[in-house]
Amino acid sequence: MEARENAAATLFSLSVLDENKVAIGAAGAIPALKKLLYEGTPRGKKDAATAIFNLCIYQGNKARAVKAGIVAALIRFMKDAGGGMVDEALAIMAILASHHEGRIAITQADPIPILVEIIRTGSPRNRENAAAVLWSVCTGDFLQLKLAKEHGAVEALQGLSENGTDRAKRKAGSILELLQRIEGEDSMQNS
Q1: Contact predicate 127/94, CB 8 Å
Q2: How many structural domains does the chain have?
Q3: Please, how many CA atoms are within 13 Å of residue 190, restricted to the half-sphere of its CB?
Q4: Domain range for 116
Q5: Is the distance from CB of 176 to CB of 157 less than 8 angstroms?
Q6: Residue ranges of the U-box domain (predicted)?
């Protein structure tokens, strides 16, 4: 285990450089890092998560991470507030949400309840990242918007639009606009 964790720390350091992101991802490191997320010590998990985050900044590694099944691990960590990995999971999730395959995998993992809960109760940074993921998942997806509304997103987002970071306020405002549009469509269909 110690050797694997040392390797993760090395990959974390190497993955900072853009030219290394491609080579490390192509070499198949992401599945091994994902495994360490489950099995490592707290320090090993953090190093693995940071390496995955750095690697996923490169567009080509986002698909590799999705294929490795990283989204399920991230959702698990987001649901375990006491596990100490919520920050890292949301940061990676926010990057993956900007990629088509990532957005599909995230949507299939039923993230709406936990995202709304984090927007409601999380730290400022986590609320911001959760709003970014929610925006990516809900944009252009009527079903996800309806789910968000059903899980209390309107109230959570109104609070975020008043008390969030600048980016969080923008994302909250954008999602609230989308939610208002579906309300208008719903009322037109029901009349």
Answers
A1: no
A2: 2
A3: 6
A4: 110-191
A5: yes
A6: 2-180
Give residues with Cβ within 8 angstroms of 169, minimum separation 6: 160, 161, 162
Q: Could you tell me if 82 and 142 lie in one domain?
A: no
Residues 6+ apart with CB under 8 A from 76: none
Profile the chain (191 residues) by mean pLDDT over runs of 10 residues.
82 89 95 94 94 96 97 96 93 97 97 98 96 96 96 97 95 96 68 52
Same domain (yes/no): 101, 128? no
pTM equals: 0.91
| Pair (142, 52) in one structural domain | no
Q: Are residues 116 and 71 in the same domain?
A: no
DSSP, residue by residue, 106-151: HHHT--HHHHHHHHHHS-HHHHHHHHHHHHHHHTT-HHHHHHHHHT
Contacts of 109 (CB under 8 A, 6+ apart): 71, 72, 75
189 and 134 fall within a common domain: yes
Q: Residue 81 belongs to what H/E stretch?
A: none
Report the distance separating Cα 87 and Cα 39, nearest Å.
Answer: 18
